[in-house]
């Protein structure tokens, strides 16, 4: 992209024009929030030190309305085995209408990791990370977060020249990668590594400062103006999976009371120990029809645990601000800053259950969600997390009995609402949704367990055993 | 609170009864969310090690529905001079309908600080902290967060006996204060210190385990059932402050263009340096009528800063989930995890401006807000934060001109909405609200500066000078 030589006045005029275009596009984006075809823009910025990424973002922020351009720059961190690459950044994913620029991002972490560890990342692992990152970005795009990746490059010769001339006050920004930019070998390694992921990046040459800033701003302007092409065709010929017998006719096995008490006592202790001493994070997900016994199950799991050791998340309809983010976003952010043991009373499966049945999600959205969920869970299980998924199955007759009992018992009256009766009317639709869910999300790394709950004692014993079994099958 | 001796069966029956009462009260609290007289309950738990606070909370969580009782236990931290005592906990303040138990809390931090520092806190400072904490809790209560404080006590003799008998697996929970519980001198110091704040605490003797758990649960039940007495009388005879001349007739001083450019260049540089090299956090608050030039002012402040050095917060109407918290909560939480330089385009003063004028806040609420805001700002300025508050004053005629210009200019059209015209119709009410705001919140630690903006160049120079002046008057 080359500009003819312009006079100072012509340059100013051209800058003013670009600035106006940017501001207009920015406000259009801002005003799209909550509307059809709303989107947000996430800008990942990386590159060679002193190539001018900081300066170009600074110039961009002068040309736009700075109030609506958020910039985050955390120092790069090593990719660790116990959190996914997106976890440190999940809270900065922009909501509809927003623009966020991330200096520190998953790619800078990947480079840092590859360059720094005593045992460098091998190429297979490096490429596997890149593939996961691209898949995650594709999920973001499908969920209306446009991702723009910009690499600021600089030749070895220019880098050395610039290093000769930086002054002390600027120096603080040039240690971001903690790398030795005077080492040619290191420079070359970095260049080789980044080529493994930059083919789909916007490439900006940092040589000419004015051109560089302008190119960057124009790339952002293009991203802002891009009308996202989210409308894809849903699968008209969606194949409904067969509802498993375990859901149509839950086992009515009954456990004797004395036996139950003894077993329960032993198992709650064993489960507590297994959860407590597992070095990994543990997620236990409960799904199932209303009154199937999610609350009672959770009570038994935590019975022998200290309240400081676990977190229980009770998931209901998303808040309005959560709807302005990708569907899984509220779960990404929940998994930050919590205990190692996380119990979910309902979960992200709401997307393919209630949101499908009630048509809160479009066909394309819930059909796409299976893969999104599988990737989400795979990223977690690859990062030292065990995911136990339990469907509590109840017969329609038993549910009715429990609803009626709840309505008669003062301290249980609060547990039943009109929603529960309304959901019950859609029993078969929920069974169909559950069948598809098992079919598409019972993966090797995070399988589903179906447990019949018409007899609560039997259910609780089986549920505890299922958790133990999965924790032990490392 | 003594119980007669009961048979095992009678005990079980009595426990079941307590559990039912707790669950019923818990659901009532939960269902109160969003309704009149909704509230939340914050339980602060502290005490002597091994007195059983962990066990009592564990027992409580067995008696209640554990899904709706959140427990947080961060290790105590030293009170530092660069954050307020409430900052580490602000995100755990319960929303309406919720119960949160905080093991680590501001009092445990205070005790840790008093016991640990090489130079112990003197009594005056200790008591000043206690007073600020109580004032903060009173603000919470006024904003529908009931605060219950429970001290678990244990005699020196019993503590030593229990220390003899704990097993290794439990030991992890007994280092929470990092104190040597075998030292009698230390025990006595702690007891003496905590007496300076426990008079308004619920006191539980940890000697008898069963009694202890029950007493704690009953204290929580009482808190849950307590109907909060939030309805207080607003001041019927509220004295409206006189609107300052600077608002009625903003100065129309005009700055010559050449002079302005030169001055501006020098000042943006000086302000950037002053902001960057100030060791404290800096908050700049902009308030004022629409089109008074908040956006343009912010642009000039950040012009010479790197986008990674500052955060801009643009404040509009609160989200629904924010309304379930105390009014200032969204600002408490915003001040976590952000850059040292924070610029607010509108702020917490919305409570006494738009919320007062539009009657979103009741009379009692906005009248109370002045003190709440002053305490909030005092806590911040006591914690290494400078607060610069600027009111941009514009004449009614000039506003009209700018509105019309905005409507005619394509890239400014987005900046004007129907709300702006509606606010303009309430001009005098806003002036009255601003007058009261200056009167009640222009404090020594965070004074207001009024700047006339009919001539933008003059306004920008004055605004930058005002920031410099306040940063230099340490």
UniProtKB/TrEMBL annotation, chains A, B:
Transmembrane segments: none annotated. PANTHER family: POLYPHOSPHATE:AMP PHOSPHOTRANSFERASE (PTHR34383:SF3), POLYPHOSPHATE:AMP PHOSPHOTRANSFERASE-RELATED (PTHR34383). It is an enzyme of class 2 (transferase). GO terms for molecular function: kinase activity. The keyword Transferase applies. It holds the Pfam family PPK2. The keyword Transferase applies. Keywords: Kinase, Transferase. It comes from Acinetobacter baylyi. Its EC number is 2.7.4.33. This is Polyphosphate kinase 2 (PPK2 family). Residues 7-196, 256-473 form the Polyphosphate kinase-2-related domain. InterPro entries: P-loop_NTPase, PPK2-related. It comes from the Bacteria. SUPFAM superfamilies: P-loop containing nucleoside triphosphate hydrolases.
């Amino acid at each position: 992209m080359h500009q003819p030589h312009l006079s100072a006045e012509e340059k100013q005029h051209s800058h003013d024009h670009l600035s106006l275009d940017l501001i207009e596009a920015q406000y259009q984006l801002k005003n799209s929030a909550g509307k059809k075809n709303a989107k947000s823009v996430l800008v990942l910025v990386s590159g060679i030190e002193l190539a001018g990424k900081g300066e170009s973002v600074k110039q961009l922020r002068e040309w736009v309305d700075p109030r609506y351009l958020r910039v985050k720059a955390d120092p790069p961190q090593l990719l660790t085995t116990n959190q996914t690459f997106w976890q440190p950044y999940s809270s900065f994913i922009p909501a509809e209408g927003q623009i966020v620029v991330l200096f520190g991002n998953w790619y800078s972490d990947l480079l840092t990791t590859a360059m720094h560890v005593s045992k460098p990342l091998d190429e297979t692992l490096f490429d596997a990370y890149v593939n996961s990152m691209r898949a995650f970005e594709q999920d973001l795009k499908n969920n209306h977060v446009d991702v723009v990746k910009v690499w600021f490059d600089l030749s070895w010769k220019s880098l050395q020249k610039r290093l000769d001339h930086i002054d002390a006050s600027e120096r603080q920004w040039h240690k971001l990668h903690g790398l030795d930019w005077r080492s040619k070998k290191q420079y070359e390694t970095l260049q080789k590594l980044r080529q493994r992921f930059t083919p789909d990046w916007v490439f900006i040459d940092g040589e000419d400062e004015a051109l560089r800033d302008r190119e960057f701003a124009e790339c952002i302007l293009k991203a802002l103006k891009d009308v996202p092409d989210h409308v894809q065709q849903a699968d008209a010929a969606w194949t409904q999976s067969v509802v498993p017998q375990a859901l149509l006719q839950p086992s009515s096995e009954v456990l004797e009371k004395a036996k139950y008490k003894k077993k329960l006592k032993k198992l709650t202790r064993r489960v507590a120990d297994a959860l407590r001493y597992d070095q990994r994070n543990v997620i236990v997900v409960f799904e199932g029809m209303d009154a199937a016994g999610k609350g009672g199950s959770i009570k038994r799991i935590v019975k022998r645990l200290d309240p400081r050791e676990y977190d229980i998340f009770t998931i209901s309809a998303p808040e309005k601000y959560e709807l302005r983010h990708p569907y899984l976003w509220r779960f990404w952010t929940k998994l930050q800053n919590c205990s190692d043991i996380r119990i979910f009373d309902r979960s992200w499966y709401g997307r393919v259950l209630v949101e499908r049945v009630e048509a809160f999600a479009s066909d394309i959205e819930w059909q796409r969600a299976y893969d999104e969920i599988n990737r989400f869970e795979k990223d977690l299980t690859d990062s030292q997390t065990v995911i136990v998924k339990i469907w509590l199955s109840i017969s329609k007759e038993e549910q009715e009995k429990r609803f009626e009992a709840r309505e008669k018992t003062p301290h249980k009256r609060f547990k039943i609402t009109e929603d529960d009766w309304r959901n019950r009317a859609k029993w078969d639709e929920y069974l169909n949704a559950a069948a598809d869910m098992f079919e598409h999300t019972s993966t090797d790394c995070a399988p589903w367990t179906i447990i019949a709950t018409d007899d609560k004692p039997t259910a609780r014993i089986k549920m505890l055993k299922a958790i133990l079994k999965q924790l032990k099958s490392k």
